[in-house]
Prior knowledge:
Elements: H1 2-19, E1 27-32, E2 38-44, H2 55-69, H3 77-120, H4 140-157
Antiparallel strand pairs: 1-2
Helix pairs in contact: 1-2, 2-3, 3-4
Amino acid sequence: MKKRDAEVKAHERAHNAAGGIYAGAPTYETTRGPDGRTYAVGGEVAIDTSPAGSPQATIAKADQIVRAALAPADPSPQDLRVAAAARQMRAEAQAALLQLQAEEAAQEDEESEAAPAREADGSGDGFETESSEPRARISVDTRFAAQRAYEQVAQMIAPFG
């Protein structure tokens, strides 16, 4: 029982250490041994798997979740599921980032094509004013993809704590 206790605690400490700010404190399922002592026979570390505020931040967070899930020397099947869900969250955030970059590039192209026309008609005075239109927009599809990834991760980890 001492050996299992040590294995469980090392496993959960590895998740906790690698999870950083996204990891909660380890909790343990315990049993009383024949010697009257309490031993850990199972455990878990809660990990915040919600998407972050931007695609870049979500990518970084997903990478850290993967590291936390795979930190123990012997990841459990649940650990592997969490890592897979985090990889999916990363892929969706990467797609959102690429879409955002494409929208920004298209907007910059439109602005650069309009600049010579402003200079030719004299409206370009060398001073640019701030547009009331946002420079970048995240599409509704991107927001739904991030929400869907969050829901999938939440469903995967719900049975375990």
